[in-house]
Amino acid sequence: MKTNAIIAGGGMTAFGKFPARTLKDLAGEAIKAALADAGLETADIEAAYMGNAAAGTITGQVCVPGEVVLRSLGIGGIPVINVENACATASTALNQAAAMVTAGLYDVVLAVGYEKLVHEDKARTFSVFSGAVDVTDMDGLAALVDGKMKAVGLEGDIAGAASRSLFMDIYATEAVAHMKAYGTTREQLAAVPAKNSRHGAHNPRAQFRDVTTVEEVLAAREIVWPLTLPMCSPIGDGAAAVLLVSERKARELGITDPVRITASVLGTSWDYPEGRESLVFHELIGRAYDEAGLGADDIDVVELHDASASSEILHTEYLGLCPVGEGGRVIEAGLTALGGGGRTVVNPSGGLLRKGHPIGATGIAQIVELYEQLSGRSGARQVEGARVGLAENGGGYINGDVAALCVTILER
Fold first, then answer.
1. Which of 60, 102, 200, 283 is the most buried (most CB within 10 A)?
2. What residues in the chain have per-residue pLDDT under 70?
């Protein structure tokens, strides 16, 4: 979808483990920050798209989570659309909000992603991830994942996912398959969280701000071989919000050098011909580039879905930032790092691995980071001269591939 929506303001909380904070508290902080940044009042909001994935499981709040959050801020009388779409929840809310502005239906739309994953019962937290699949066919999923693991020489046993996200088993198969096909090493996997830790150290809202080395990553506790704990995105809470406005409203607000959403492509996987995998990435990424009239060489800064170290390697390739099979070597060489001399910086926020991954908040947190990068407001992690940014955010797993994916391109 080509869009002409303009980001007037953005805000987000720190990401982390906040057992005492409520969804209303977290989302309210992000919304208030976005309003202040935009110079708008609650009365200016004409519609709200509220993204949350886990409230029903973690807090018991179902059916009206968005309305509950907004009423706590005195916001009512407007359309409120609750959005749930796995890890792509927030980017889906943004996609729909941008569509409404582009269609001319509203001048000011709020898009929010907010989440609590921290719970004293860790099994309940991990059940959120195990629910992001076809739960009517868990035997089929177990056979699929176990088969993938055995095909690359791993022991298949997703029953162990009760004490971890089952997606880590899936990511482990992807990592080993890439290692076998292209010679990717564990050191290159470890270079991903090491690089992102250097970025996240400069992000005051990141869940983890300590700098870690390749050696420390490799020595950390193993989750599923070849992945260690720092190679896996952490559990956390947080919220992010943006206000999208029309061109008319942007002129009224005096925005003269706007950050625009020029393309937002949302889709799902499908049943591919036998032997074909991950077509959804190539399809949607290609469409996003086409609709924005850009290519990979035009992108200055990327926030991609590094739910694991192997994810960043694969998605760097999917986005065309390097040739297929070269993702590990490019990252190890520092070419996607701040100051690394490459064309495009990847995950200057620290990515999911260091910034954190509260499922329903992640997609808009990526957008807030890119909005600030393109506005030149990112301090020590600023990508010099950034004018074009891309966010890639996906989640869920059906029949061997990501269930939902959203690719968003921003330009200033």
1. 200
2. 156-164, 275, 277
Q: Rounded CA gap, 233 and 249, in Å? A: 38
Residue 227 lies in a domain: no
Within 103-234, where are the H helices?
A: 122-130, 138-151, 167-182, 186-200, 214-219
* Residue listed under structure tokens 């519609």: 47
Q: Among 87, 232, 322, 406, which one carries the catalytic annotation?
A: 87
**Cα–Cα nearest to 281, from 306, 233, 232, 317:** 317
Rounded to the nearest integer, the mean pLDDT of the chain is 95
Token pair listed for 115: 């989440």
* Residue 232 bears catalytic tag: no
pLDDT in tens, 160-216: 555 667 888 899 999 999 999 999 999 999 999 999 999 999 999 999 999 999 999
Per-residue pLDDT of 358-374, as tens digits, reads 999 999 999 999 999 99
Omega before 193 within 30 of 0, i.e. cis: no
From the list 350, 387, 324, 368, the residue with the least C-alpha distance to 192 is 350
The DSSP output letter for 237 is B
On whether the CB atoms of residues 254 and 265 are closer than 8 A, the answer is no
**Cβ-Cβ contacts under 8 Å for 296 (sequence gap 6 or more):** 289, 319, 320, 321, 344
Residue range of the domain that includes 266:
6-120+235-411
Q: Which two tokens stand for residue 335?
A: 């070419």
**Sheet strand arrangement including 259-268:** 80-83, 47-51, 108-115, 238-245, 6-12, 259-268, 401-411, 388-398, 301-303, 345-346
145 part of a folded domain: no
Q: Which of 119, 199, 315, 357 is catalytic?
A: 357
pTM higher than the cut 0.90: yes
Query: For the chain, what is the domain count?
Result: 1
Residue 356: CATH number of its domain: 3.40.47.10
- In a domain, residue 101? The reply is yes
Residue 214 in any domain: the answer is no
